[in-house]
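The step that takes the researchers longest sounds almost clerical: writing a folded protein down as plain text. Below is the pair of lines this work produces for a single protein:

——
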Amino acid sequence: MDNNNNNNNFISRGCRCAPDPQNKQWKVYSPSCSKLNAINWLKNIKMPDRSDSTEVVEVRLKNSHKDFFNAPVELNLGEGDIVAVEASPGHEIGIVTLNGEAARLQMKNKNIDINNTELRKVYRKAKISDVEKWISAVNREDETMYKSREIADSLDLSMKISDVEYQGDMTKAIFYYTADDRVDFRELIKILADTFNVRIEMRQIGMRQEAARLGGIGSCGRELCCSTWLTNFRSVTTNAARTQQLTLNPQKLAGQCSKLKCCINFENDCYNDYAKYLPDPNIILETKKGTAIFKKPDTLHHKIYYAYEHAHEQMILITSKRAWDIIAMNQKGIIPEELEESIIMEEVEENIDMINPEEESVERFDKPKKPKRRRGKKKKNQKK
């Protein structure tokens, strides 16, 4: 395996490159490579001495895998140190990301009870033999993943193995997979255990978690948010798209994970706040020119499109302040001449097809279009 693939495998663990076993410093940890980067704001602040014999440290493993451990104070661990930590069974190799009071505050931020939670232990700082075995385990992950996919296909299992994570001591491998239905992989586990001579653990993940692990480029031209900085997934509904007047097209709203894009939620709160200043769409405006009906809002500009009942083909854009003024006038029995003196006329798109991405199949866009009739032949026939 070439060096580029080796470096890519270690980037998923927050390293800028593969560690060098001959260099005992091993300062390869780079917070900028880590999606779960946590800045230690207390790094240059001297904290009061504690009488505890152990301290809490945060250790990063692969991808989104992070955990807290108890470490003996005499180890004097710092950010970027490669350590051997307790695993089940054997030990795992990870990198210290936070230590001391910053790690305790991080536990509190994640709602973990420090006093009543039993943490696993940090055994030691990694030795040269530990690092060499760790590098060998990481380098086997891609080859193991491709081989396991071939085995799963040969067994006709409807599943996709998207990632493999070897334990640092090469005694266990975790296979992450996605599947639509329940999969009986008992035979698969037996074959994988005989092929790779390790303990096998199968762990099912969702489509969003798979996209976060594999990464990719979104329709915006940037790397996927879930693979670079987004750590928690909020449910996304079509109501958020309707609030922002987005085209309800499955091809545009669906992301790489075939679910609604997470970025639909980013501006939804802003639209909901601005919508509070707009009148109720069910309220009609009475003018001497006719009754005006609510058509659609321009939420961020505090403007609304109305149309008269007798002229549905034209829309009139007015400010929300003007709409509230007309509503107040109507309540007092006053009928204004018209909606606005300076108006902007636009054609209304009738019979807009509202599509629900979760109900409508995307395959309908792949249907061939009906061939258009050629007008040239008719003209020739008329001339004859």
Q: What stands out?
A: Confidence is low (pLDDT under 50) at residues 342-355, 362-366, 377-384. Residues 140-208 form a domain with the GMP Synthetase; Chain A, domain 3 fold (CATH 3.30.300.20).
